[in-house]
Design a protein that fits this description.
Layout lengths: L5 H24 L4 H4 L14 H9 L2 H32 L5 H13 L3 H14 L5 H25 L3 H9 L4 H12 L1 H17 L2 H6 L8 H6 L9 H21 L1 H12 L3
């Protein structure tokens, strides 16, 4: 190791430590009994370790229902966005027609529109159509804001794929759909994978629509369910920390395991040619 690189490693290590410590403290605190969380000088390690907070969120609050809701809504939105977004992005990247720049600009404007401006009219519409507290009430507005992001990202990925490969496939007798499915999609796999991860995380963490369009505990997604843990006189911080740990660890592990693909996808989308 060169001496000139030592300060860089030290600063990087301190940055990683400071970034990781809040999550580590949350993890430890989720195993602490309730009284220890309110001490002036709480112990660093739980004394003793207890599973009471986890038992309470799953058996008493039925937090597993909220996890299922988030998985279904985020998963369905991601699949629809990637499926429709890939076709739209491929057309915008490959087809030559007038007004393509205007369409891309309109898509960008939609993604920048403030969600709070449409919550009230959407609530009235969902109430009349009787889809409040259903998956559809969340998937539809999520598509409105996640699909433009998907189209923008995938358009950049498709543009950097050499067009000569598609021409060669067509010369061999492959039709447009077969060329798209067997040639273009495999080459754009890093970009599609990255876009799917970003879309899923957006839907997983979305709060405003989930708060407005779900009114009972059984239909709420994870962010809203955790906020609703608060009691009348006390805040069950132990249960909140346990719930945060349960929903954060899988996503964090997934990102760490797949970080190479995510980085390669983002890099591929940033380069052209």
């Amino acid at each position: 190791m060169r001496r000139s690189g030592v300060p860089v490693y030290i600063i990087t290590g301190l940055f990683i430590l400071l970034s990781f410590f809040p999550f580590f403290w949350t993890l430890l605190s989720s195993y602490k009994p309730g009284p220890q969380l309110f001490q002036i000088n709480p112990p660093f390690w739980p004394q003793p370790f207890t599973w009471e907070n986890y038992r309470a969120i799953f058996l008493e609050r039925r937090f597993y229902l909220n996890i299922i809701n988030s998985v279904v809504v985020a998963g369905a939105t991601t699949c629809i966005c990637v499926g429709l977004g890939a076709l739209a992005a491929y057309g915008l990247a490959r087809l030559k027609f007038r007004g393509k720049t205007i369409i891309l600009g309109f898509i960008l404007v939609v993604s920048l529109f403030p969600p709070v401006a449409i919550v009230s009219p959407l609530f009235l519409l969902w109430e009349k159509t009787r889809i409040i507290n259903t998956y559809l009430a969340l998937i539809l507005p999520y598509l409105t804001f996640a699909l433009p992001l998907t189209v923008w990202l995938l358009t950049a990925f498709f543009r950097q794929i050499p067009f000569e490969l598609e021409e060669a496939a067509r010369m061999d007798g492959a039709g447009p759909l077969r060329t798209f499915w067997e040639v273009t999609l495999p080459l754009a796999a890093p970009g599609i994978f990255t876009t799917a991860i970003l879309t899923f995380i957006y839907c997983w963490n979305e709060f405003l629509f989930a708060l407005a369009f779900t009114t009972n505990d059984a239909s709420r997604t994870i962010p809203v369910a955790i906020v609703m843990f608060s009691g009348y006189h006390t805040v069950p911080w132990g249960q909140i920390l346990a719930a945060v740990t349960v929903v954060t660890v899988p996503v964090a592990v997934l990102v760490l395991v797949l970080q190479r693909r995510i980085i390669s996808g983002l890099t591929a989308g940033a380069l052209k040619g």
